[in-house]
Amino acid sequence: MKEENSTSPEVSYNFLETVVLVTGSGGGIGSSIAAVFSRSGANVALHYNSSREKALHLAEELSPGGKHAAAFQANLCREEEVRQMISRIVSRFGRLDVLVNNAGIFPSAGLLEMKPADWETMIDTNLRSVFLCTQAAGKQMAAQGNGVIINITSIEANHPGAGHAHYSTSKAGVLMLTRASANELGPLGIRVNAIAPGLINRTGLEEAWPEGVASYRKYSPLGTLGEPEDVAHACLFLASPAAKWITGTCLTVDGGISNRPLI
Ligand SMILES: NC(=O)c1ccc[n+]([C@@H]2O[C@H](COP(=O)([O-])OP(=O)(O)OC[C@H]3O[C@@H](n4cnc5c(N)ncnc54)[C@H](OP(=O)(O)O)[C@@H]3O)[C@@H](O)[C@H]2O)c1
Questions:
Q1: pLDDT value at residue 13
Q2: Which DSSP helix (H) or strand (E) runs through 229?
Q3: Does domain 9-253 have CATH number 3.50.50.60?
């Protein structure tokens, strides 16, 4: 991806010859991010941990025969697996231009009942994994002289949700890691930004959490939940040359709910 010469919108969203890694591509938001980049011409590396079938199916759907999409397995809590994944992606596609750190978990637990192991799993999966992927991909991008990293955090980084002390803390950490990474990696030609989604629709959400969905619709200025594509389109923008002077920031994609007055 050439950032210097292409600033007009029609050029900006052309990701031909760009290699994009999306972690957690078997999940709701990750699969949408991968699909949107693929439709914009990118070669997509679809990371999965346990969702092998979903990732393989998506790879075949996006690029029948697998020329422009391939699935890569790794437990992102394990340093060696992360390092090997990046190495396999570079062997397969020749480079790595965009990393979207999307994989994450969001179980709930009250602070007084939470086991230390719950805390550690959350921080390992949501924060340490972002550090590991940023470091491994960052080395490759530094060698290339350019790259873009996008970290999916959450509005809960600033507005802790009930039963989510560990989750909100992990996402606040991702926000600060984004800013620190932007400072260190900017001189190497690498931009780093975050996206903070609000509540994103998925199959079964309304049945599983009717009161949360109703409350979101009621209090959000735009009156709806988000769709995975809303996050994906924000990724497209931040990865594109249209955002070539944007680094170290966070784009909130939440229908305006975190902008509401506190009282
Ligand atoms: N959904 C929302 O409303 C919402 C709102 C704000 C922020 N977010 C954030 O957006 C991101 C995606 O959310 P989602 O709703 O799409 O979640 P999801 O459907 O549950 O997908 C999460 C993905 O994370 C991967 N993952 C979990 N543990 C992993 C590990 N140890 N190593 C590697 N991969 C691991 C899973 O991979 P496998 O399935 O392959 O195991 C899964 O594909 C998360 O970071 C989440 O915190 C979501």
A1: 87
A2: helix 228-239
A3: no
